[in-house]
Amino acid sequence: MKRVVVPEFTSLHVSPPSPIPVGVLFILLGLCGFLAGLLARETLDPYTPRLLLAIGAIGLGMGLFILGMVKTGLIVHLCLIGSILDQWEGLDFIGIPFLTLSKILILMAGCILIVRAWMRPSIGSELKYPTPVIAHIPFSLVCLVSALAFGYSLTNSVRWVIAPVTLPIFAFILTQFITSGRQAVRLTQAFAIYSFFPIAVASAEILSHRRIGGSIEILTYGAADIFRVAGNFDNPNDFVVLILFSIPILLLWALRTTSLTARIALIGGVLLQGMILLKTYSRSGYLSLGCVFVAMLFLGRGRSRRLALAVCLLGAIAAISLPDVRERILSLVGIRPSASGASQALASLNYRKMLLAVGWNEFLEHPFLGTGFGNIGFEAKKYSSLLYQSSIENTYLEILAEMGIVGLTFYLGFVCVFAKVLLSGLRESRGEPLVEPYYLALACGYCGLAVNGLFDTNLVDNLPWVLLPLLLHLRPDETVET
Asked: What is the per-residue pLDDT for 93?
């Protein structure tokens, strides 16, 4: 009997073409547009470079949008890079401003989320609502109402209110793009690596200008020069906020890895970032980073606690043995420094005291509702023409002065809810070698950020909100909760 072979028609099915090549093509066209625009700045009329740069931006945006629809983790990587670059307000390598990069990327993530919901309506029931974001909504509303009701300048008030109103929304959007604890671990490791990106860009700019001729010069003055180029030296706190998270991640990653080469590279990265911190002479940076490892002493266990103890001892020895660092820290308690930079340190400290006095006086005059969100800079000029800053460099006192007891109550309520979520997640990650080190590192970073708020206003920083979705997902995959 002859055997009849029935053809399998399912094998003739042709899958739809992948959109990845199209996205890559748009990105290449965008990069070509950027390159052409940059090269044309010196040779053509002023309108042609702008047109080429606009074409490059459109092409790059279209490519990233298409790839983000397919590779959802890509948009989180891009937002991490954007938020890190935002910490460097003065970074102007090849003339491209980075200040609003993360905001553009997160808006793109929001558009991707909307398109995905339109293509698959059931995604609405799968949305995750992070508890810290929900807890921040009352404070965001207070900021918005205060800015609109008491703002001396609508333009100024709207500019300041954008961050506390929109950053929780950004965290909510990014939370939807992370699906597991393993993915959160990879993103946390990627963030630690990306933290060197501005330093690498600044090094490239220095080398392109032939500022550094050899490795010895890099060791002697390269770190200070890199930071001067890579950051806004007038406000080193931007760099401090980054290393409050990157240094503990790098150290606990080095403690966990079994590769000797990786461990040496990670510890070397910690030393590099620590050396740059020393060159900033930032008193708030020294104290905030110290509080990170003090928190690790209390929150960590086993090897992580011993590591935190060793770092605290080494930090104390460095603070005592380095005259510049020692005297800048002692200046906080009123001891007059005698080093060459004494006058600058005292001037900075006296200026901060004047700002704090302005904030306290404004609170006493308007104890319940404050002077209005974003108004403290305008009010400070009434006391002295020398007070030109728009903040008083203290998050808690600034909230108290601008929004009174009402605003501070809502903000501290958010802080308490966040602390409860943080401790709950830490208990759930205990004993999980994959996620516990990274969760502990981020948790200690947020503790350092809370202390850093005593020395600077952190309400407008993107980085803590971009890292929040990572913290919420750094748990065993079967117990991920937001």
From this structure: 45
